[in-house]
């Protein structure tokens, strides 16, 4: 069996602080709000919280533009609140995973304020600058949020690189001083007792702007190994997870080498691109093909075996709600949310739950003026200027807009879903009167309790953590099914992705010892039929 680690055995819960719980009525979630909900998270059973950025930030990209890595944004609270959160979470056996945004800072960071003063300023070389003439950028690199990735600074007659918004200048990792400053900052947070880090768009730090190489640059792994050695490897058992959009299994084996030289694991996004048109990006939609989902997830399950560790996720603050995306958020919302959870939590890897996923929260369809996200608003503007029909643009936004994930957490059916006593910074999903935590916690058949059970099963059965994966019924058009095997123990997971009953000769794989661990329907049909979005998890002991 492979090396045992706490971070392989735990389940992580992601909090997007601005939308989780407001404590002072200003309409923005904050650290005190999170502290007040720790009992809820302990009840759910998770072992770590990945906290989206709470450091000082002008909030141009909602915290992913940091102006002081060693202070908390007043909007979220203070450093004392952060220390209290680490402490209070620790009392409940929950570790805090910080979000490290190391590819870029805010343009309001003192480093950048200095850097743009002149070419001979000691901080100039902290960022990526190129000479040029106004109006003709050095090359045609584009920003993820639209437009050129180069911004002209007339005072010094140079362009700086920003792969995201103009307010997010890219750091120059080729400069050893940048790297050293970053390492001391990380070590400062480790001293404060955080349990690990999620590394934002870390695959971009080895970029070579002149050659238009952004992801997976030539020096990427050299930088990460140095970073890891100077910080993460200093003796604490940290969970580190890199956000790596362009990873293949081969690349993931470098990032997540079991020798601990880089990270614990990575977020890979291959499955996330399955419902977009080839080569066109996330906004150009196509339906999910279940066969492709089986191929991609199975590939990652088998290829990393013994050589790297998977993270398992459907959602995060950048992605639409999974129940609306690949489930059914109408008639079968509860069944399909549970089915998708079963599929993911039965796999090999560390599961991540994104806030509200455990309640079956859904996507929204707002008017354009009700949206807040920089990426979404840029997309709308660009497409409208190009003359796309508005209804088509809105369809893309409904399906993929990041604000789907960022509407306030639905705690109860009172004012603003119990998120704030004031007015939330972004409109609450109008379905909060039906979909909310208070209902979920009371109802034993709720999605929330189902997630609790999944988390508990992972603690009770080593095979769910360490077992080997095998896809079964590979050709079945509607069912995603697999086994996990560790010594004599075997788990079998079967999931129907169709909104109607399908046939499946389950007996082929069920041994006489089979015991049902969990299912999303309470009454059982014969073993060869699965109802709409039905999911089952069996345990077998084979001698
Ligand atoms: C990551 C974050 C996203 C952010 C971007 C730039 O993809 O998850 O929210 O906008 O990096 O930091
Ligand atoms: Ca607040």
TrEMBL record:
<dbReference type="InterPro" id="IPR045857">
    <property type="entry name" value="O16G_dom_2"/>
</dbReference>
<dbReference type="InterPro" id="IPR032091">
    <property type="entry name" value="Malt_amylase-like_C"/>
</dbReference>
<dbReference type="GO" id="GO:0009313">
    <property type="term" value="P:oligosaccharide catabolic process"/>
</dbReference>
<dbReference type="Pfam" id="PF00128">
    <property type="entry name" value="Alpha-amylase"/>
</dbReference>
<dbReference type="Pfam" id="PF16657">
    <property type="entry name" value="Malt_amylase_C"/>
</dbReference>
<comment type="similarity">
    <text>Belongs to the glycosyl hydrolase 13 family.</text>
</comment>
<dbReference type="InterPro" id="IPR006047">
    <property type="entry name" value="GH13_cat_dom"/>
</dbReference>
<keyword id="KW-0378">Hydrolase</keyword>
<dbReference type="GO" id="GO:0004556">
    <property type="term" value="F:alpha-amylase activity"/>
</dbReference>
<protein>
    <submittedName>
        <fullName>Alpha-glucosidase</fullName>
    </submittedName>
</protein>
<dbReference type="InterPro" id="IPR013780">
    <property type="entry name" value="Glyco_hydro_b"/>
</dbReference>
<keyword id="KW-0326">Glycosidase</keyword>
<dbReference type="InterPro" id="IPR017853">
    <property type="entry name" value="GH"/>
</dbReference>
<feature type="domain" description="Glycosyl hydrolase family 13 catalytic">
    <location>
        <begin position="14"/>
        <end position="406"/>
    </location>
</feature>
